[in-house]
Amino acid sequence: MAIRNIRTEEDQILRRKSREVTKFDKRLFQLLDDMAETMYAAPGVGLAGVQVGTLKRVAIVDIGDNLIEVINGVVIKTEGTQVEIEGCLSVPDVYGKVERPEKVVVSYLDRDGIQKEVSAEGLLAVALCHEIDHFEGILFRDKVIEYINLEDVEEGQENQQI
Fold first, then answer.
1. pLDDT, tens digit, for every residue of 74-111?
2. Could you count the other beta carbons within 10 Å of the beta carbon of residue 147?
3. Beta bridge partners of 100
4. Of the residues 20, 37, 117, 131, which is catalytic?
5. Which of 60, 83, 109, 113 could disulfide-link 71, Cβ–Cβ 3.0 to 4.6 Å?
6. Alpha carbons 2 and 79: distance in angstroms, whole number
7. CA-CA distance, 76 to 85, in Å (whole number)?
């Protein structure tokens, strides 16, 4: 495994749409493993392939329960709304309130190409939506309702960059 460089918002690759994954091979496994190591070292709770310079529809999320590897993920159902403070590893030290669905169902493939679904709410729903936005070249800044000063971010929340 290796820690990869996280691209920041000045890098135009973050605004490009990612391609679907069609090959499930050792290169994909290495990418997923490297992304996990990179995310944990940052520290963050989510990371998309484009954030490490790979235009593939891959993301990882771990809000503290377990690592979810999302390949070709799509939100297939939403319910309600929530406004939470978000940050992004590609937009360091910037936080803002973003409106997202309260609950989501995401359909995706795992590293073995097996179709899965995850039902999520709260931070997990936010993280999944945030990463799937990255697949489309959308940054959380595009959805910020109100920016938050770093001093106003609760202790520990600054480590929950997505």
1. 999 999 999 999 999 999 999 999 999 999 999 999 99
2. 12
3. 82
4. 131
5. 109
6. 37
7. 23
